[in-house]
């Protein structure tokens, strides 16, 4: 790996815990919050991939709502429009993983520009980052929306390279989603996979360059590699 | 819907039951066969979509094996190479759903050419159809392999239209996979969704033209529409 000149983070599932919406789901269907958020997240991912392949793009907020409509039908939840809207609003204020705020501060102190590259709409990304009070950490918030296709398509990964004026080999891409880490690696970024819960890496012909169990471990590693600016 | 001049079937999960491999999985890990086959199938699908989006095509047999390697790791099965090969061989002889052989005979008697359009490799499709003794039913076995991308990309759906020398509006596309039915509908085929087990249709901006609970019901419906040749 060359010297790193910037760090690009995935948002959903990497810096922020998508299953923090389970608490709000639980308020509508006590005892079923986690079950709902798991199906919802799985369908949300599938719809990003399927719509991209079909050539029928719609933005992340629309797909998030459509995935919840499916989930409501499949799990027989009978969520009405108000409930759907309330739960989708929760997706705009999901919580960062516990170690993330302090680790981002340490990474920023190293002097590297930090960016988010997400399938979320520009509004989704801004809302989530602002709701958690972390907007000062990031030099760039980059949405797939401008290229109207989702990760793991190359067009999305290319956005970070372009906006950060770096070669892909100089940007460290960080994701907890193995499929996303694989896509970024295939595109040409050096990749760090955050594996918080002992998952198995996907078999997509790629391997991460570095594996950590949390963002604090990434800060530890980079502080030994490049001392604070 | 115009007069129908041919029928195009999806294979995996539509005519043939992918979970018929659960019995073989069970022989390696008693009591866990269904759990294994569910994760394996889900990953197999994901890998077709993800590799297509990454622009890193590999054929269905390779992805099926890679999905099983992932499943073995995630479920801590420690399947060795021989076990992986034995289980992948099972995918080449999955069983048709019980009503399928008789219903295909009835559909063929109507006089419409029947085709399979599948993400499977040409070898996979031929093996499955031959193992079940149904090869005489089909005028065309069409694999996504020739265009090196998977459904629901338009390039795959286009293959049936081309090889059957019909306009897309004249071919009935039949799938149990709601994402596949959605892709075919978006491409322009009239679509019949086989919903055997009370699933919810995916929210991908499309609706099936016709819904049945089994292939026998499709034969019933078409026999009333167009009398036997």
Automatic annotation (TrEMBL), chains A, B:
<comment type="similarity">
    <text>Belongs to the HAD-like hydrolase superfamily. S-2-haloalkanoic acid dehalogenase family.</text>
</comment>
<dbReference type="GO" id="GO:0018784">
    <property type="term" value="F:(S)-2-haloacid dehalogenase activity"/>
</dbReference>
<dbReference type="InterPro" id="IPR006439">
    <property type="entry name" value="HAD-SF_hydro_IA"/>
</dbReference>
<keyword id="KW-0378">Hydrolase</keyword>
<dbReference type="InterPro" id="IPR006328">
    <property type="entry name" value="2-HAD"/>
</dbReference>
<dbReference type="InterPro" id="IPR023214">
    <property type="entry name" value="HAD_sf"/>
</dbReference>
<protein>
    <recommendedName>
        <fullName>(S)-2-haloacid dehalogenase</fullName>
        <ecNumber>3.8.1.2</ecNumber>
    </recommendedName>
</protein>
<dbReference type="InterPro" id="IPR036412">
    <property type="entry name" value="HAD-like_sf"/>
</dbReference>
<dbReference type="InterPro" id="IPR051540">
    <property type="entry name" value="S-2-haloacid_dehalogenase"/>
</dbReference>
<comment type="function">
    <text>Catalyzes the hydrolytic dehalogenation of small (S)-2-haloalkanoic acids to yield the corresponding (R)-2-hydroxyalkanoic acids.</text>
</comment>
<dbReference type="InterPro" id="IPR023198">
    <property type="entry name" value="PGP-like_dom2"/>
</dbReference>
<dbReference type="Pfam" id="PF00702">
    <property type="entry name" value="Hydrolase"/>
</dbReference>
């Amino acid at each position: 790996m060359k010297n790193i000149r910037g760090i690009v983070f995935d948002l959903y599932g990497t810096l922020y815990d998508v299953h923090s919406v389970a608490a709000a789901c639980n308020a509508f269907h006590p005892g079923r919050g986690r079950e709902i958020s798991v199906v919802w997240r799985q369908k949300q991912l599938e719809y990003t991939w399927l719509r991209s392949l079909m050539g029928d793009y719609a933005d992340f907020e629309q797909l998030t709502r459509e995935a919840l409509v499916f989930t409501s039908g499949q799990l027989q939840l009978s969520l009405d429009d108000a409930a759907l809207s309330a739960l989708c609003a929760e997706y705009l204020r999901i919580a960062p993983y516990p170690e993330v705020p302090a680790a981002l501060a340490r990474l920023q102190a190293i002097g590297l520009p930090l960016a988010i590259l997400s399938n979320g709409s520009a509004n989704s990304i801004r809302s989530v980052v602002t709701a958690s009070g972390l907007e000062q950490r990031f030099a760039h918030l980059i949405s797939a929306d401008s290229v109207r296709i989702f990760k793991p398509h190359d067009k999305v990964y290319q956005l970070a390279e372009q906006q950060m004026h770096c070669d892909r080999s100089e940007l460290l891409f960080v994701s907890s989603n193995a499929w996303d880490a694989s896509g970024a690696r295939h595109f040409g970024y050096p990749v760090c996979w955050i594996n918080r819960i002992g998952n198995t890496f996907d078999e997509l012909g790629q391997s991460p360059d570095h594996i950590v169990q949390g963002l604090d471990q990434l800060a530890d590693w980079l502080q030994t590699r490049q001392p604070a600016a």
